[in-house]
Design brief:
Elements lengths: L12 H14 L3 H15 L9 H16 L7 H4 L3 H9 L1
Length: 93
């Protein structure tokens, strides 16, 4: 028997109900839909967002304002090649 985990996520009630309805129409349990979405995410190493969240939009706007003010940190490509760990280490120094 395979090892099974329970995943809990907060989801908008209307979205959950709509997903359950579509799954029923297709004759599959909602867990099958969620499992397939997770498999797709793991295998393709990507996911798509239909509509960005307000939080993401706010962060993009904040980043744009920071960039326009010159309030950002940039690393040469040679440092970036060393990975995020090296770049973060430079922030600590």
């Amino acid at each position: 028997m395979s090892d099974i985990s329970i995943v809990t996520a907060k989801v908008d009630t209307n979205l959950k109900r709509a997903a359950q309805k579509k799954a029923r129409e297709l004759g599959v349990p909602i867990s099958a839909v969620i499992k397939e979405a997770l498999r797709d995410f793991v295998n393709k190493k990507r996911f798509s967002l239909e509509e960005p969240s307000q939080y993401l939009l706010d962060m993009i706007e904040e980043s744009r304002r920071d960039y326009e003010r010159g309030d950002y940190i940039s690393f040469p490509a040679s440092q970036a090649a060393g990975g995020l760990r090296d770049a973060l280490k430079n922030l600590e120094d």
